[in-house]
Design brief:
Helices cover 53% and strands 6% of the residues. By secondary structure, the protein is mainly alpha-helical. The protein has one domain. The two termini are 13 Å apart.
Length: 62
């Protein structure tokens, strides 16, 4: 995978997510917002299944 997505890039593609959110919800929203494959891959490989906010998502994939 290329470099890790930045928190700003993450939030751009996760716009509209209501937290807490599951990994599958984040992937669905990111795909519908046109996220690149490396960002989707980073989300898919996150060890958590549930996220309580944007900071938790950033931490999980960093």
């Amino acid at each position: 995978m290329a470099e890790k997505p930045t928190p700003i890039e993450l939030q751009k593609y996760l716009a509209g997510v209501d937290y807490p959110a599951s990994k599958s919800t984040l992937l669905e929203v990111a795909k519908s917002n046109g996220a690149p494959d490396d960002l989707l891959g980073a989300l898919e490989s996150a060890s958590q299944e549930e996220f309580d906010g944007p900071t938790a998502v950033s931490s999980a994939i960093s």
